[in-house]
Each structure stands twice: as C-alpha cells, then as structure tokens.
Amino acid sequence: MNQTLAKHSLVEAFKTSMKKQGLSTATLARKVGTSRSAISRVLDPKNTSITLRTAQRTADALGLHITVIASPLAPAELGKLASKLSKTESPAEAARLKAAIISGFYGHQHA
C-alpha cells in the first residue's frame, strides 16, 4: 500500500468520525491537544508526513483504533502461495508452503 493510499484511508476514517460526532477541526484540535493547523495536516490526504504518534493521538480523540500490519510479502504473493498449498498433494511441500505463508504474513516463524 503506498503512503498516499494509506493516508487517504486514514483521513476518510477520521473525517467520517468527526462528522458523526459533529466535531469541527478546532474542537478536534482541542481534544488532541494540538493546533488547528496540525489537525489540518492530519486531515490532508496528500500530506503523508504525519507521525504514527500523531495519527494515534487523533484516533484516540475520535474513539478509533489504528492497526498497522507489516508484512514482508504482498497479499498477492501470499495468495499465490495459498493457491499452491491448496493444490499440493505432498505433505512435505504442504509444510514448506504453510511455513512460507506464516513467515510471509507475520514476518517471522510462528509455531
């Protein structure tokens, strides 16, 4: 996921929550403990330079939860491995593919 797409998704969630709660930029800024200009940067989908701390503080103020997933393999690559796993008849190959999927999803081996 590129930075702009990720930021756009975050901004949409923030703006939807603000609208539901009837919050202005100024009110959200007070809840977060920052300036209106800082919140304007948070709400600008093209500004990808905000920190995770700022995003989390904003989410907390809006009653939202942010989840970040870091995966060494792209979803398409994981899907290809899963497809191969579903077709294999070899227990050894199945174990190897399963390990690759787990490693690719979590970034390290889980038992």
Describe the structure.
The protein has 111 residues and is mostly helical. Helix content is 67%, strand content 0%. Helix 5 packs antiparallel against helix 6 (91-106). The two termini are 28 Å apart.
What's this entry about, in short?
The chain has 111 residues and is mainly α. It is 67% helix and 0% strand. The radius of gyration is 20 Å and the shape is elongated.
Secondary structure: elements and pairs:
Blueprint: H1 3-21, H2 25-32, H3 36-42, H4 52-62, H5 75-87, H6 91-106
Helix pairs in contact: 1-4, 2-3, 2-4, 5-6
Label the overall shape: elongated
Share of residues in strands: under 5%
Outline the low-pLDDT stretches.
none
Helix count, DSSP H or I runs of 4 or more residues:
6
Biggest sheet descriptor: none
The radius of gyration over CA amounts to 20 Å
Mean pLDDT: 85
Distance between the termini: 28 Å
Percent helix among the residues? 55-70%
Based on helices, strands and strand pairing, what is the structural class? mainly alpha
Strand count: 0
Order of helices and strands: HHHHHH
Give short descriptive properties of this protein.
mainly alpha; 111 residues; 6 helices; single chain
